[in-house]
Amino acid sequence: MKILKVIGMVILILIAIFIILGLIAPARYAVTRSIEIKAPRELVFGHVQFWRHWQAWSPWAERDTSMIVTISGIDGAEGALYLWEGDPKITGKGEMTNTGVIPLEEVAFQTHFIEPWESMSDGYFRFSAQNDTTMVSWEFNGDNPFPWNVFALFMSMDRMIGKDMERGLNLLQQLCEKEAEIILSYQIKEITLPAINYAVIRKNIGFPEMEQFFSESYTDLMTNLGKNMIRMTGPPSALYFSWDEQNMQTELAAAIPIRGTFNKGNVSTISIPQTKAYQLDYYGPYDGLALAHQALDMYLMKQEAKFVGPAIEEYVSDPMTETDPAKWLTRIYYPVEK
Fold this sequence. Notes:
The chain is an alpha+beta fold and about 350 residues long. The protein has seven helices and 16 strands. It has helices at about 1-25, 40-50, 60-65, 150, 155-185, 210-225, 290-305; strands at about 30-35, 70, 80-85, 95-100, 105-115, 120-130, 135-145, 190-195, 195-205, 235-245, 250-260, 270, 275-285, 305, 310-315, 330-335. The strands form two sheets. Strands 8, 9, 10, 11, 12, 13, 14, 15 and 16 form a nine-stranded antiparallel sheet that branches. Strands 1-7-6-5-4-3-2 form a seven-stranded antiparallel sheet. It is elongated and about 110 Å long.
């Protein structure tokens, strides 16, 4: 009987200690990591704001190559969802919800871990510009209700996810600094863009449709112009009237420069008047044009000039005769008012 009493007392003492620990242990946790990135804030912010860009720097995507990601809603805006499912031993299953965006300052989110265990946490990225660098802070925080707050005394959330956050910020730093080096290498000059007429096929389309649109439209344009004995007066071009990153939509036109006008079927004429413009010469494959446009966007802001559009891409090199994509020249013009 004495042994049973002793065992009972020990159990009561352990329960009391556990309850006391529950009363004094923190009811919330917060894990924060920061890094300085030598890149413009606009560039860094864009890689975090849009879920579709996380794959390039996410530490969990790096560790779990089997992870499947699904994005729904308007990416980059409040309410957008990032759903993942991967190796149960590495990433498990869960979802993140964008809970608010302050342009160039903060991206907030809520994370719902579903498997291997269920939990909720809030988080944010905050950005501040310091000279030519960007300071980025990443935080996860959440509730630690009893009895989980007691277990947290022995299993620190900081130790559990802190290293992953550090790795993610390091990957983000490497990505942004590499892109910033490319962006800053471009030479941009101010020119007077002469007046020009374009025969165009114009349309609102989603980003994934662009390649097919250009392929079909240039064929239609050349066929129509050839049948009507109209000669092109310069390289094939593209005109961009709008670019909606969140909805992944653009209003654009496949364009051929001509003398005079031509309006027939789905082909019409757009006249660009003589104007001041910023010009950038880009050499390389077409999938690298995004950084050239970012360079022009940043230069535009720095010069405090008003973009009047449309943005023009002039495809100087013919891929049919120049087989090396690194030598393809695309001349980009941003018409402006100063």
